[in-house]
């Protein structure tokens, strides 16, 4: 259960290793018979169906172990990325994202995603470098003087988007968007709490850093507004 990468990698190897044989030997036979079947894609589809069976059997066994469940999700997302980008798998075919979209699994995914995001926010705001810009010594890059915590937070949101963007239904994607909105509001509350501690020094270093953080986040969210 703790090594889903073993069978996921094995399937990717099988698909890669058989590609030339299927293209050179099997596809011409299908073409000659007037079939529209793509041998390589059908081979991939059959192997992915095996993975779906395996996931359906394994997920109930690790649903409440955060570490194992997160590892499984991470490995499945890596597998899906390579399956589509390297092997040309079709989005209309069955995929692992359908298993991750099933109710009990999906709700668990949302829960652990939120848990780890909040832990990340705790660590980024308690860091010594939280209010310092990574690029403070490079003036032509650092026009917005973005503190490290704001940049890390926006990267966190971007990573979450990247993880859920291939979910098969809009309703599931919207649930993840709801989580992101919660995280933005949580971050806003945290900034407000820090700001209240700094009101006596409104031209102080940290107070200005908070304003820069808010300005940066607003600008990035405005840029993302075109991303359906």
TrEMBL record:
Coiled-coil ranges per UniProt: none
Q: Which GO terms describe its biological process?
A: endoplasmic reticulum to Golgi vesicle-mediated transport; regulation of ER to Golgi vesicle-mediated transport; retrograde vesicle-mediated transport, Golgi to endoplasmic reticulum
Q: Which InterPro entries match?
A: RINT1_Tip20 (IPR007528)
Q: Name one GO cellular component term.
A: Dsl1/NZR complex
Protein name as catalogued? RINT1 protein
Name the source organism: Chloroceryle aenea (American pygmy kingfisher)
């Amino acid at each position: 259960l703790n090594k889903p990468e073993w069978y996921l990698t094995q399937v990717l190897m099988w698909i890669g290793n058989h590609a030339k044989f299927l293209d050179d030997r099997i596809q011409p036979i299908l073409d000659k018979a007037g079939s529209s079947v793509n041998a390589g894609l059908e081979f991939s589809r059959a192997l992915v169906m095996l993975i779906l069976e395996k996931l359906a059997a394994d997920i109930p066994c690790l649903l409440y172990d955060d570490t194992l469940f997160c590892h499984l999700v991470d490995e499945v997302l890596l597998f899906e990325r390579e399956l589509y980008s390297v092997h040309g798998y079709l989005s209309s075919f069955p995929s692992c994202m359908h298993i991750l979209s099933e109710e009990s699994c999906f709700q668990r995914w949302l829960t652990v995603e939120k848990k780890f995001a909040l832990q990340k926010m705790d660590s980024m705001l308690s860091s010594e470098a939280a209010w310092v810009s990574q690029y403070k010594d490079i003036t032509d890059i650092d026009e917005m003087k973005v503190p490290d915590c704001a940049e890390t937070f926006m990267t966190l949101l971007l990573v979450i988007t990247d993880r859920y963007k291939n979910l098969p239904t809009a309703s599931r994607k919207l649930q993840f968007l709801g989580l992101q909105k919660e995280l933005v509001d949580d971050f806003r509350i945290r900034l407000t709490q820090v700001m209240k501690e700094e009101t006596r020094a409104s031209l102080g270093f940290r107070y200005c850093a908070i304003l820069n953080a808010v300005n940066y986040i607003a600008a990035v969210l405005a840029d993302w507004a075109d991303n359906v």
